[in-house]
Amino acid sequence: MQGPVLGIESSCDETGVAVYDPAAGLLAHALHSQVDLHAVYGGVVPELASRDHVRRLLPLLDRVLGEAGLSRDQLGGVAYTAGPGLVGALLVGASVARALAWGAGLPCLGIHHMEAHLLAPMLEPDPPRPPFVALLVSGGHTLLVHVADIGRYTVLGETLDDAIGEAFDKTAKILGLGYPGGPALAALAEQGDPGRFRFPRPMTDRPGLDFSFSGIKTFALNTYRAAGPGAAADIARAFEEAVVDTLVIKSRRALRQTAARALVVAGGVSANRRLRAALRALGETLEVAVHFPRPAFCTDNGAMVALAGAIRLGAGEAEPDLRIRVRARWPLSELRPPGR
Ligand code: KG4
Ligand code: ZN
User: Cα of 105 to ligand 1 centre, how many Å?
Assistant: First the structure.
């Protein structure tokens, strides 16, 4: 494959489109967030998400190609998120990608959403090089992964119940904040007293790299019931301090265990400022390089999909037929190095 790659993301509540050129880098990207659409329901409504992807995808595609100054036949390939995610939502991106690639005679490839998140820091200056440890923190996943190389992933630890972003969102709901709760909770925490409540740091008192965040959400609920709405900011602060601390403790353990010299942090929650500062401080203490995507590429976006597509299509990978394959679940450990 030669030429720029179009990337399409539609796994959840964001429609993202981008063009990444292996030589020139990111040429254009655009995003439509469905936050307003789902906010009234307090969470993502899958059918509404699918319908909105249908509405938004083609106009975004035209916009991105226009900004990149490219016509469809100047592309080198098309990549789309094939999973994990909401199947109806994934099918929209997959169908458009497949049809477009077929029409223009281009190679096409489905991308793993979490691999795309993991590679997103490579869109920044001074990109990370494997081997490294990746901390993937999003609305659906909390993973510590050893990345021996691109496509060679060993999951070191994962959540046994709620994902970290889910814990942010559920706790935000308890505190009467809107959806998605992560950014709102983080903003409220700024006004909170860090000394008033102390939340547990789940599963840090025993060995291992797994996480559990459902207990901490219940702790927030009980504290809120006992202390009342006036304590919301203090609860938000205590919750944030506890989850950040937990992620730092487990990241330190993973770095020690693997002797890795770099930490990559990605996924929606990696936009969290307190988490970024705490992990940067950890990196300084351990003399380990810490890499994040820019905040706009922490949450779902097309740029990370276009980049992952450029890497894999560039190594000669492409789907052999016109079948559309999407997966609600897809373990990261099933992936292979590009081209194999
Ligand atoms: O990666 P992402 O956009 O979608 C998934 O693949 O899940 O992550 C979305 C999650 C949501 O739970 C959202 O509340 C959380 O990331 N999030 C944050 C922040 N920004 C987004 N959580 C804490 N602090 C933030 N600043
Ligand atoms: Zn995501």
Answer: 36
Q: Which one-letter DSSP state was computed for residue 4?
A: -
Residues 6+ apart with CB under 8 A from 168: 180, 181, 182, 185, 186, 243, 269
For a substitution probing ligand 1, which of 38, 294, 299 has the most ligand atoms within 8 Å of its CB?
299
User: How many helices and strands in the chain, by DSSP H and E?
Assistant: 10, 10
Q: How far apart are CA 6 and CA 67, in angstroms?
A: 13
Measured from the alpha carbon of residue 116, the closest ligand is 2
User: What pLDDT is recorded for position 178?
Assistant: 87
Spacing, Cα 102 to ligand 1 middle (Å): 34
- Tell me the mean pLDDT in the region 296-320: 98
Contact 121, 292 (CB under 8 A): yes
Q: What is the pLDDT of residue 2?
A: 85
- What string of DSSP letters covers 102-170? HHHT--EEEEEHHHHHHHGGGGSSS---SSEEEEEE-SS-EEEEEEEETTEEEEEEEBSSS-HHHHHHH
Domains present along the chain, CATH in parentheses: 5-119+298-334 (3.30.420.40), 129-292 (3.30.420.40)
Q: Tell which atom from ligand 1 comes closest to the C-alpha of 163.
A: 12
Residue 305: helix, strand or coil by DSSP? helix
Between the CA of 308 and the centroid of ligand 1 the distance, in Å, is 20
Please report which helix (H) or strand (E) contains residue 197, including its range.
none
